[in-house]
Amino acid sequence: MVQPEQGESSSAARNGSKASANGSATNFELPWVEKYRPVYLDDVVGNTETIARLKIIAKDGNMPHMIISGMPGIGKTTSILCLARQMLGGAAYKEAVLELNASDERGIDVVRNRIKAFAQKKVTLPPGRHKLVILDEADSMTAGAQQALRRTMEIYSATTRFAFACNQSNKIIEALQSRCAILRYARLTDAQLVRRLRHICEAERVDVTDDGMAALVFSAEGDMRQAVNNLQSTAAGFGIVNGDNVFKVVDSPHPVKVQAMVRACYEGKVEVALETLQELWDLGYSSHDIISTMFRVTKSMDSLSEHSKLEFIREIGFTHMRILEGVQTLLQLSGCVARLCKINMKPDAFVLPK
Ligand SMILES: Nc1ncnc2c1ncn2[C@@H]1O[C@H](COP(=O)(O)OP(=O)(O)OP(=O)(O)O)[C@@H](O)[C@H]1O
Ligand SMILES: [Mg+2]
């Protein structure tokens, strides 16, 4: 096992050694997202200000009720678990934490019985520490169950605090939102993803090329879980992680190809652009995959003039909308490509000869 790099502390090593203690077969099978799930808040990357606040809470205790919201795979569950572990310590953790997620029954009965019973339970904790109820994936709780929590949260707040994690905070009823501090997690930046992925590559001795890393980051769109999963799948399937292999694994259109198509549109070469589109279509990509890759590629293409870029994004946006409305044909995409070509053509080209 390679020593993890400085600053990344030893969570991975610890998880890893736990895995190898169970025998090498388990070590092999353990998904890297779990093997490298941060154990301490220090290891959670991104959202630095929010994590800094959580670290202070972990040190001083007196945690407020809180809601952490944000898109999937960016460390919400992880940071709540780290916080609980650091705040309460290993020994009290078992006694003083009740964790319920969407896989558990969380209807109104559970709120009335299990959560209430836990809130009433006596646990001896150091001063400033409270029992913790973690309600993960709270947006899938029914409104009724959330309503039932309102008074419970208030009555037992001297001894029990609540932490909710959810993807959409608007699925949490207003009354609970007003009782909680709301922390919003943003997508992770490319640099943050790269740093963590490099750390995992080093620990797992994976060969990764620069374009492989770029491909992982491009396809993950700020979702660390997806990036790590794609890294593992590519490493397991192909050995070497390069751009082509990553795009084979994630099965999305290769941005280089899409970029060539957008470039052809920019230069007004409609035949070339349509040919490339046809090739992508023949590879079996859905119109949704193609249009969303077109959007992301165009957004980050420096060689387009500012004006063209804005017009392109507008056109792609409208086509995306039509595709989402259900018109998912090649004709729809071809129309989009044709309109993109037209943007930079001179109006004289469309005048019919007299
Ligand atoms: N900020 C991060 N730093 C380090 N690793 C992360 C981070 N975010 C996610 N991961 C990795 O992704 C995995 C999943 O993260 P986590 O369970 O916290 O996601 P989540 O935000 O709760 O997503 P969901 O909304 O789907 O529940 C972790 O096991 C970890 O390996
Ligand atoms: Mg989660």
From TrEMBL:
<keyword id="KW-0539">Nucleus</keyword>
<dbReference type="GO" id="GO:0031389">
    <property type="term" value="C:Rad17 RFC-like complex"/>
</dbReference>
<dbReference type="GO" id="GO:0031391">
    <property type="term" value="C:Elg1 RFC-like complex"/>
</dbReference>
<dbReference type="GO" id="GO:0005524">
    <property type="term" value="F:ATP binding"/>
</dbReference>
<dbReference type="GO" id="GO:0003689">
    <property type="term" value="F:DNA clamp loader activity"/>
</dbReference>
<dbReference type="GO" id="GO:0016887">
    <property type="term" value="F:ATP hydrolysis activity"/>
</dbReference>
<comment type="similarity">
    <text>Belongs to the activator 1 small subunits family.</text>
</comment>
<dbReference type="Pfam" id="PF08542">
    <property type="entry name" value="Rep_fac_C"/>
</dbReference>
<dbReference type="InterPro" id="IPR050238">
    <property type="entry name" value="DNA_Rep/Repair_Clamp_Loader"/>
</dbReference>
<dbReference type="GO" id="GO:0003677">
    <property type="term" value="F:DNA binding"/>
</dbReference>
<dbReference type="InterPro" id="IPR047854">
    <property type="entry name" value="RFC_lid"/>
</dbReference>
<dbReference type="GO" id="GO:0006271">
    <property type="term" value="P:DNA strand elongation involved in DNA replication"/>
</dbReference>
<keyword id="KW-0067">ATP-binding</keyword>
<dbReference type="InterPro" id="IPR008921">
    <property type="entry name" value="DNA_pol3_clamp-load_cplx_C"/>
</dbReference>
<keyword id="KW-0547">Nucleotide-binding</keyword>
<dbReference type="Pfam" id="PF00004">
    <property type="entry name" value="AAA"/>
</dbReference>
<dbReference type="GO" id="GO:0031390">
    <property type="term" value="C:Ctf18 RFC-like complex"/>
</dbReference>
<protein>
    <submittedName>
        <fullName>Replication factor C</fullName>
    </submittedName>
</protein>
<dbReference type="GO" id="GO:0006281">
    <property type="term" value="P:DNA repair"/>
</dbReference>
<dbReference type="InterPro" id="IPR003593">
    <property type="entry name" value="AAA+_ATPase"/>
</dbReference>
<feature type="region of interest" description="Disordered">
    <location>
        <begin position="1"/>
        <end position="23"/>
    </location>
</feature>
<feature type="domain" description="AAA+ ATPase">
    <location>
        <begin position="62"/>
        <end position="207"/>
    </location>
</feature>
<dbReference type="InterPro" id="IPR013748">
    <property type="entry name" value="Rep_factorC_C"/>
</dbReference>
<dbReference type="InterPro" id="IPR003959">
    <property type="entry name" value="ATPase_AAA_core"/>
</dbReference>
<keyword id="KW-0235">DNA replication</keyword>
<dbReference type="InterPro" id="IPR027417">
    <property type="entry name" value="P-loop_NTPase"/>
</dbReference>
<dbReference type="GO" id="GO:0005663">
    <property type="term" value="C:DNA replication factor C complex"/>
</dbReference>
